[in-house]
Amino acid sequence: MWSTARIASVITRCTHTARTTCHPIRRWCSAAAKPVVFDVTDNGKFATVTLNRPEIHNALSPDTMDGIVTAFRELEGNSDLRAVFLKAEGKSFCAGGDLKHMRATADFTFEENCADAMRLSGVFDSIYNFPQPVVAMVGGNVFGGGLGVLSACDMVFAVAPTKFAFTEVKLGVIPATIAPYVISKIGVPAARRYFLTAEVFGTAEAARMGLVNDVVEDGEELNKLESQLKEQMLLNSPAAVRACKELIFTVGDAQITTETRELTAEILARTRDSDDGREGMSAFNERRKPRWQQV
Questions:
Q1: Could you say which of 11, 18, 175, 231 has the lowest number of CB atoms within 10 Å?
Q2: DSSP 114-155
Q3: In the chain, which residue ranges form alpha helices assigned H by DSSP?
Q4: Is 198 helix (H, G, I), strand (E, B) or coil?
């Protein structure tokens, strides 16, 4: 459960009109040269982060892990963004751990293995704690650590043929670093089955357990859905969306107590008194489109 101070700081930022606007980032690196690329739309409102190693099924090699973390770190400073869409080139979204790197870890010391595992965990953390929504658009199979990437996202949409599996036990290891993110997404009962059996499952089961939000027929439908999501997101207050994301983390697992009720009442009062809170109510009453502040 996130601290009261942290969410209060987000709401406080929503109450001030003094803002800094970052220039949109167009391209972080050459798509031909790097395992992870990202760019921002011309209007500066949406970014796309793309896993770009289709020849190894976008496995989580050290350079891919570092590329993901770097991309989200760079984008975090862009206050214009409404959301980040996470995609992958090729037939696979992410095959999990890179086999070449996994073989190399056999010669690591315990301390080196701990550091390497924290490096992997940092990938999921960079996505999970990103201030704006992160949406995975999945057009290919996802295995092992790739499911940690999906579980760290706020939303996941996939094409119908996609297959999933937690394959770690087949290799004599366990899905340890992804577990906090995955179990918070699919729950303990589903984890007990699929962690322990390494069964392959499809999109219907992934949607049933909450790993995937919705399923579409093909890539064309996935692109249409992306456009629809962007249109919807542009209607919303950027400050309210960021605060709402932190609110979910703060109270998602909290017991309903007097303290929790008082906290949420204070949060609501702060948002009502924020710039966007007042603007939203004024626009509604005046039957016009709101003019949202930048975060």
A1: 18
A2: HHHHHHHHHHHHHHHT-SS-EEEEE-SEEETHHHHHHHHSSE
A3: 4-14, 62-76, 99-104, 110-128, 145-152, 179-186, 188-197, 203-209, 219-233, 238-251, 258-272, 275-286
A4: coil
Query: Among 174, 81, 182, 74, which residue's Cα sits nearest to residue 126?
Result: 74
State the Cα–Cα distance between residues 193 and 18, nearest whole angstrom: 50
pLDDT tens digits, residue range 75-121? Answer: 998 889 999 999 999 999 999 999 899 888 889 999 999 999 999 99
Residue 164 amino acid letter: F
**Residue that is written with structure tokens 């409102």 in the block:** 45
Amino acid at 151: S
Q: Which two tokens stand for residue 74?
A: 């760079």
What SS3 class is residue 202?
A: strand
β-partners of residue 84 are: 47, 134
Neighbours of 63 (CB within 10 A): 14
Span 48-76, pLDDT tens digits? 999 999 999 999 999 999 999 999 999 99
With 90 as the cut, is the pLDDT of residue 178 above it? yes
Q: Which residue has the tokens 């892990």?
A: 65
| Cβ–Cβ under 8 Å, residues 294 and 79 | yes
Per-residue pLDDT, 26: 47
